[in-house]
Design a protein that fits this description.
The complex is a heterodimer of chains A (133) and B (636).
Chain A lengths: L10 H26 L10 H6 L8 E15 L3 E8 L6 E6 L13 E8 L5 E8 L1
Parallel strand pairs in A: 3-5
Antiparallel strand pairs in A: 1-2, 1-4, 2-3, 4-5
Chain B lengths: L1 H15 L7 H4 L8 E3 L7 E3 L27 E3 L4 E4 L2 E4 L4 H12 L6 H17 L6 H14 L8 H45 L12 H60 L3 H14 L11 H11 L5 H27 L3 H15 L3 H4 L3 H22 L3 H14 L6 H27 L2 H14 L4 H29 L3 H6 L1 H7 L4 H29 L3 H14 L4 H13 L1 H15 L3 H14 L4 H14 L5
Antiparallel strand pairs in B: 1-2, 3-4, 4-5
Helix pairs in contact in B: 1-10, 1-11, 3-13, 4-5, 4-8, 5-6, 6-7, 6-8, 7-8, 8-10, 10-11, 11-13, 13-14, 14-15, 15-16, 15-17, 17-19, 20-21, 21-22, 23-24, 23-25, 24-25
The chains are: A alpha+beta (133), B mainly alpha (636).
Chain lengths: 133, 636
């Protein structure tokens, strides 16, 4: 009797296929992330530099992603001042002034935001845009 | 008893008085202290120096008595106060320097019991025996007179027997003169009779001329005149001689009377002198000789008025030789009794009374055998008591109450009758008052009242200069003063160095030192309050650190440090805690530095970071709040 051909998949092929699927998923995710960041063209703020000499960054625009820690002050005309724990370090907390044009955005503790920041006079970080993430 | 004492005191004063020295020179100025009113018999009440320990202090009496012998009053002695009053001055009989010196010399002298002393007393006894009433016959009088010369050879007699013998001899010579004057008077009387007879004969044999005729009246008158002249011329020699004889007779009578009176006065003066010299044995010899020599029975004293008054006022009778004799005998008896009392009291260890009795007897009968023969061993006991008594008086006078107390104890031990009440009262009173002033001085020292301190110390010193407690208290107070001064200097120095920790560590010393300086008190109070705050914060920080909260401990210390940056202990703890909470401190200081540089954003970020490290940080919270206000000035 003639021998029947085997129907089982070869393991090598299977591994390659899995790698291909994983790569596709990773790439998709990367693309998704990159394409979905509106401030992907902005450089993240250099926190150490800012902490040591904010004046040297005056006039620059950066992006900052972090978690709202607390509201430090509020002025109906000048906006709200929040402390934001920057991603990547629990003790890197930056003050961010959210001007009144973002009053419609509810900002609460532990919410994550990505801010487009401008280093203003005396090193005050003022949000020129913000996105909740 | 009063009478012989009066005489004795009087004679004692007279004996101790040097020639030309009046009574006023005894005492000098009157003692002003502790006057006591003593009513003197026969005198007005006068101030007497009762208890005068100065010795010999006489005191002037009323002004009207000044400047006259006896001062218009007879010398008087009051046995109650032992005060003798004479010529307006008062003396304590046994308490004056002259008496004390004489008495102490006697007490220290050996008894006079040598062969010479005994022989002398035997002679005196024989003389008195020969002259005793009933024995005073011619041979006995002659023997007594002969013995006077022998007695005067002894020193103790002071040749007084010679004086008596001289007086007796003078009296006898005087009586011889009177005999011769009587003989002369008899001869003159015979002469007078003869002269009168001659005159009568002459007058009867006178031949008269014939008278002229009776008609011629003028011739008759002339004749009569011539006849009268002729008779007067014839009788004149007899008349003159008769007048001369009568004058001589009268003169001789006066001489006789005066001669006897002179010799009596001389003799009586000697007797008075012996009496005043307290030579009572010689007085007896003299009075007995006087009676033997002057047998006319007239023994009345014919001395001066003052001496006459002396005896008359003391005896109350007209002074006579017999009065002196009886008084001398009374003195002898009194001295014997005094010596017996002394010996008995001495045997009972009653030295105070014994000494007084001996002093009284010595005052009266210094030269009597009972006094002179008293054994020195017995006298020494009295002398020691006297010396200690004098020491006690001196100690009380100079306010040495420590010594006085010892002497009182010693005297009360040796003399069972010594009265300690007065001395003890004086000592205890002085001690209490001194202690009272010292206590006030200490209070004044504590309260810083320097004026009161000085016044009270002075008062305490005046009352009891040698008070041992005074020295200790003064040292203590002055030491305190030194300590206080040093503490104040230290305080000022530490204040200038802002070394409040050192001030706080020694705060008790500085609190005491600034007690009298209100300004410094305020400064010190601030420092102490400040350091109390520092200490409290340090204790608090240490407790927090024990729980591992170094950042919290550091914050507590740091807050205090900002107020009081000069405290070394706080600095030390702060340094330790800075090490322990290094990340937090560094973060906070970076925030502060950046805030100083007006880098609001960075500084705020650092404050926020510090708050993350120590969420309870007040410094971080304050910094955040402060900087947030700068970012949003309108924020609420």
């Amino acid at each position: 009797m003639p021998r029947r051909a085997s129907s089982r998949t070869h393991p090598v092929r299977l591994a390659v296929a899995l790698l291909a699927v994983a790569g596709a998923l990773g790439g998709g995710a990367y693309l998704w992330t990159t394409l979905s960041d509106p401030y992907r063209t902005l450089a993240p703020i250099d926190i150490p530099t800012y902490l040591s000499d904010a004046n040297s960054l005056r006039g620059n625009v950066y992006k900052l992603t972090g978690t709202i820690d607390s509201q430090l002050a509020w002025s109906p005309t000048a906006g709200r001042l929040y402390s934001v724990v920057a991603d990547g370090g629990k003790t890197d907390v930056l003050p961010v002034l959210i001007p009144p044009q973002f009053d419609h955005v509810n900002v609460q503790k532990d919410q994550r935001f990505t801010f487009k920041l401008e280093v203003g006079d005396k090193g005050v970080l003022t949000a020129s845009d913000m996105r909740k993430i | 008893m009063k009478r012989p004492l009066l005489i004795a005191a009087l004679s004692g004063v007279a004996a101790t008085m040097s020639p030309g020295q009046g009574p006023g020179s005894f005492g000098g100025p009157p003692a002003a202290s502790q006057p006591a009113q003593a009513a003197q018999p026969g005198t007005t009440a006068q101030t007497a120096p009762a208890g005068n320990s100065g010795g010999g202090g006489g005191e002037s009496a009323t002004p009207k008595q000044q400047g006259s012998f006896l001062g218009g009053d007879a010398p008087m002695f009051d046995p109650g106060t032992e005060i003798f009053t004479w010529d307006g001055h008062n003396w304590h009989v046994t308490d004056n320097r002259l008496f004390q010196a004489r008495f102490e010399k006697y007490l220290a002298a050996p008894e006079e019991t040598t062969a010479d002393d005994k022989a002398y007393q035997q002679i005196i006894a024989r003389v008195l025996d020969d002259l005793a009433p009933g024995n005073a016959t011619g041979p006995h009088i002659d023997e007594a007179f002969r013995l006077l010369a022998r007695a005067s050879a002894y020193d103790i007699d002071a040749r007084l027997c010679d004086s008596i013998g001289d007086a007796v001899y003078s009296a006898w010579r005087s009586q011889d003169n009177q005999g011769r004057l009587t003989t002369a008077d008899n001869a003159l009387e015979q002469e007078r009779t003869a002269t009168e007879w001659n005159a009568k004969i002459a007058a009867s044999g006178l031949q008269l001329d014939q008278a002229p005729a009776s008609k011629d009246k003028a011739a008759a008158a002339a004749w009569q005149q011539d006849e009268n002249q002729k008779r007067d011329m014839e009788m004149q020699q007899y008349t003159v001689r008769l007048a001369e004889i009568m004058t001589t007779i009268k003169a001789n009578q006066a001489k006789k009377e005066l001669s006897e009176l002179d010799s009596k006065i001389d003799f009586q003066a000697l007797l008075v002198q012996l009496f005043l010299q307290r030579r009572f044995q010689h007085v007896l010899i003299g009075t007995r000789f006087y009676r033997a020599v002057f047998t006319d029975g007239d023994t009345a004293l014919k001395v001066g008025k003052e001496a006459n008054d002396l005896f008359a006022n003391s005896t109350g009778m007209p002074p006579t030789v017999g009065t002196m004799d009886s008084m001398a005998n009374e003195v002898l008896r009194d001295v014997r009794e005094g010596v017996q009392a002394f010996e008995y009291l001495l045997s009972q260890n009653e030295l105070e009374s014994a000494s007084k009795r001996l002093a009284e007897s010595f005052t009266v009968g210094e030269y009597l055998p009972e006094i002179r023969t008293l054994p020195r061993v017995e006298k020494r006991k009295a002398l020691q008591f006297e010396k200690q008594s004098d020491q006690l008086l001196s100690a009380l006078e100079v306010k040495d109450y420590t010594l006085a107390e010892k002497l009182v104890t010693a005297l009360s031990t040796t003399a069972t009758d010594f009265d300690t009440s007065k001395a003890t009262a004086a000592i205890e009173t002085a001690k209490q008052i001194s202690a009272f002033h010292l206590a006030k001085a200490r209070n004044a020292a504590v309260s810083g009242d320097k004026a009161t301190l000085e016044a009270e110390l002075t008062a305490a010193t005046e009352i009891w200069p040698r008070n041992p407690a005074l020295t200790k208290a003064a040292d203590l107070i002055f030491d305190q003063g030194d300590v206080q001064e040093k503490a104040l200097v230290d305080l000022d120095q530490l204040m200038s160095q802002r070394n409040y920790r050192a001030i706080y560590d020694d705060k008790m010393r500085f609190i005491a030192a600034v007690a009298m300086y209100p300004d410094r008190q305020d400064q010190l109070k601030k420092v102490i309050d400040q350091m109390a705050t520092v200490d409290t914060s340090m204790i608090q920080a240490q407790e927090i650190a024990k729980q591992g909260d170094y950042a919290g401990a550091w914050e507590v210390v740091e807050k205090t440090f900002q107020k009081f940056p000069d405290d070394s202990k706080l600095n030390e703890l702060r340094a330790n805690l800075t090490t322990e909470a290094a990340d937090f401190v560094r973060t906070l200081r970076t925030a502060q530095d950046l805030e100083q540089k007006d880098e609001v954003g960075s500084s705020l970020a650092w404050y926020l970071k510090a708050q993350k490290l120590y969420p309870n940080s007040d410094f971080a919270q304050d910094g955040i709040h402060r900087l947030a206000k700068r970012v949003l000035p309108e924020s609420s």
